[in-house]
Specification:
The protein has a single domain, classed as Vaccinia Virus protein VP39 (Rossmann fold, 3-Layer(aba) Sandwich). It is 37% helix and 19% strand. It has 8 helices and 8 strands. Strands 3-2-1-4-5-7-6-8 form an 8-stranded mixed sheet, sandwiched between helices. It is globular and about 40 Å long. The structure holds S-adenosylmethionine. The site of S-adenosylmethionine (SAM) has 18 residues, from loops.
Length: 248
């Protein structure tokens, strides 16, 4: 079972405290997500000592990851884009006094992404139709100066994928706000788009401690953007693999 670092409990408590006015459910959800979802720790860990710089968090939800990055000094500023009005409002209130800007927008209708050092897309793509996913991925690749990090559901991950899809479909029936569709695409598709845009891409499992089928796609490039690579530079990617764009 892959392991990942845990978030500092003091940081989790500081983030959760910012949701005190949002009720027990929201506060508990935020704390639980930061504590138990390996994506939070993996993404903070990926920021490293140098940090992410300016960040765009697409489908930021309640904004707990953005707030954690800011409180940890791992981002200089965050723009969150979120369609759901309640989540967007909670994210904005939680970020009061921090350099967090929350924009309420449907990314399927308007996939434009503001320029930033780092673009995050965490557990969002599978909630979009395929054409909207591809448009958002291309916009993210064009907007990110240095990095794109995507946590995605891998539909090819056997029993884990079946369980995750079942859970997501059930959640959608219980909560009408759980996304328009459950439409996970192969992670290799996103990796190929990022690779073609000049990023070096790695895929790693990102489900430690859960029965789910998630992967973390990390795309990075040096300060000076590479010219777009020839199409098809990434062969089919599997978790644990690394792909580099061809030399310019
Ligand atoms: C599973 S949640 C993940 C939230 C957040 N990224 C996190 O890690 O906690 C998916 C989020 O994507 C948002 N979302 C789904 N479709 C969207 C769309 N078309 N435009 C903007 N946000 C969307 C949902 O409202 C929800 O907040």
């Amino acid at each position: 079972m892959p392991t990942s670092p845990r978030l500092d409990p003091a940081l989790v408590a500081r983030v959760a405290a910012r949701y005190a006015a949002e009720g027990r459910f929201a506060r508990g959800f935020v704390a639980g997500k930061l504590r138990r979802d390996p994506a939070s720790a993996a993404i903070l860990h990926a920021a490293g000592a140098e940090g992410f710089g300016s960040v765009v968090d697409l489908g930021c939800g309640r904004g707990q990851l953005a707030v954690a990055l800011l409180l940890a000094g791992a981002a200089s500023a965050v723009t969150g884009i979120e369609a759901a009005p309640t989540q967007a409002a909670q994210a904005a209130r939680a970020g009061a006094g921090l350099p967090l800007r929350v924009i309420r927008r449907d990314l399927a209708a308007d996939p434009s992404v503001p320029a930033a050092d780092t673009v995050l897309i965490v557990d969002v793509l599978y909630q979009l139709a395929t054409t909207a996913q591809l448009a958002l991925l291309r916009a993210a690749a064009a907007a990110a100066r240095h990095r794109v990090l995507i946590r995605a559901l891998d539909p090819g991950a056997g029993a884990r994928a079946a369980l995750t899809l079942g859970w997501e479909r059930l959640s959608r029936r219980l909560s009408p706000h759980a996304g328009a569709v459950v439409n996970p695409r192969p992670p290799a598709e996103a990796a190929a788009i990022l690779c073609d845009a000049g990023f070096a891409v790695t895929l790693a499992p990102c489900h430690a401690g859960t029965p789910f089928a998630n992967v973390l796609i990390t795309a990075s490039r040096p300060a000076a953007p590479s010219p777009p690579a020839a199409p098809g530079c990434c062969p089919r990617a599997r978790p644990g693999t690394r792909h580099n764009p061809p030399a310019p």
